[in-house]
Specification:
- It is a single chain.
- The chain is mainly alpha-helical.
- It has four helices and no strands.
- Helix 1 (2-21) runs antiparallel to helix 4.
- The longest helix has 49 residues, at 102-150.
- The N and C termini lie far apart (48 Å).
């Protein structure tokens, strides 16, 4: 969970930086359009670094959660399914990137990121609740076995 709290603001800050540092149509054609920030290599490198760190955090989180939530026998299938959906959405982004302007793409990414973070939080809380219920049931069973053995 702390990893997601690192990745989410880094990504959102990078998306905001892209919107401020690049012209709206920069991905569609060469442009000298106005930007909110003056063009600077250091700003572009910082934006790239934020995206890389956010991506590293998000991928680490995904791998850790998948291995924690599922048993060893099915974790490889779940991870493959996760990579399939990641590849599918990447493929879709290649198609719409030649149609939609850069700022619209950043909005799509930000909304998708927030939705994924909300879904992750819900799934993680459900998983923790299931662990608590299983531990409680195990504790109750062990108490009844101990109490049953003490009564002749």
């Amino acid at each position: 969970m702390p990893t997601m709290l690192i990745a989410l603001p880094l990504y959102l800050l990078a998306f905001l930086g892209v919107c401020l540092a690049f012209p709206k149509n920069a991905n569609l054609k060469p442009t000298n359009g106005a930007t909110y920030l003056s063009p600077s290599l250091s700003i572009w490198l910082i934006i790239g670094m934020l995206i890389c760190i956010g991506d590293s955090c998000w991928n680490t989180l995904r791998t850790a959660v998948l291995t924690k939530m599922y048993d060893r026998e099915s974790s490889s299938q779940i991870f493959a399914l996760s990579k399939f959906f990641q590849s599918t959405t990447t493929c879709a982004s290649f198609f719409y990137s030649s149609i939609l302007d850069l700022h619209t793409q950043m909005i799509i990414l930000a909304v998708s990121l927030i939705a994924a973070s909300i879904c992750f939080t819900i799934a993680w809380k459900i998983h923790l609740r299931e662990i608590e219920i299983a531990a409680s049931a195990k504790h109750t069973t062990s108490i009844s076995i101990v109490c049953g053995n003490n009564n002749p």
